[in-house]
Write a structure and sequence with these properties.
It is a single chain. This protein is mostly beta strands and about 425 residues long. Helix content is about 10%, strand content about 45%. The protein contains 4 helices and 31 strands. The termini are far apart.
Length: about 425
Amino acid sequence: MASSKVILIGSAVVGLLMILPSGRAAAEDQTPAAAAESSIISQKGAPPSQKDLFFSRDRHLLYIALPGTLEGSAYRNGLGIVVLDVDNNYSFVKRITTWDVPASRDAQQVAGVTASPVTNMIYVAARDRLGAFDLATDKMVWQNSYDGKCCERPQITPDGKLLVVGSNLRDFWYVVNPMTGKLIAKIQTPLTVAAHNLNLSPDGKLAFMSSTRSKVLSIGDLGSYKTIKTVTFDDAVRPFVLNHDATRIYANINNFLGFEVGDVETGKVIERVEVPGFGWRAKWDDSRRGHTPHNCPGHGIALIPDEKELWVVDVLNNYVHVFDNTKENPVLMDSIKTTAWPLWITIGLDGKFAYISSGDIIDVKTHKIIGQMRDEYGRQLASEKLLDMTFTDGVVQRVSNQFGNGLESAVSAAAVGASPATTDR
């Protein structure tokens, strides 16, 4: 025979539960909804703990590596990785320690950052070392200085098996094991000296490698670790991005405000697009202009995921210029005034927001600045090295690219007027 027990919290009666002699709740007393829930729990395991009910397992975060630019003091925003909560108005979450640098010395600039859902690590390149940090613990897993000639802009292949990183302004790139940091090979680029920027094809089979001083962009095969092709531009190649199938390269070049488009098959420039107006040529040629960041009129470029727009920065006037890329000859459609030098563009997940190294956050759809990235002291952040990531239970689910490349899913969806299911970069 069943007995009754009254459960009390303080003096309040909060529930009456029929308990069988075996201690199990009487199934016949459950409502249909409760019985269904009980069935689901029995199939999927125990229900969430009380702690889980109060804390979300999902996070959407920005990881901003510092010092993330050569332009300005190395200590303007401090050192490490500042983490911001995208879903909570970009509020400050924490600062992750990377390397402990004596106060009497300048910290080496962070030269690039990448991350992988496969390894659940973020990889930070500085001008004298490369380090891997576990995103579940924020602790360093490994670091390596190799032969003392690293490191620039790292990228990890989609399968998480290879990490490619540039030497420090030399004529080769390192290929390393992402789990251990062990050197696997070097890709020699005799025509591309002063290794600087690196991008990978969507399938992770090709490495696109550029320099601060060479007109020649080298393309390396990650199966043989050899340079197999080159594309020659009209001046030294600066930041560049790839279209969705890596058949086109959109690049900033020295002494030019705008971009050139390189054809991977022919190895030649097929289009040259200049930013009209804004008096950039007169300003660039003026001997009194003083220092220009990165010694380049435009050091930043990005495609939005569906490739309908191409964005370039203007450091002479502090603008981001937006081109309509749906036309045979891209035309300027908008210009966005930034609050400080714009030196890099990172397109966030799903292509909703553009993160500018000036610290500005731009709504991609409206072309309006909606806020600024700030550290724990309210200082506007200035970094060219940041990633947009989502997490579940401390494990990376999706991660943006340092470079604003086109995406196959977004391009295909736009062609049929649909939204892509995912737009992982």
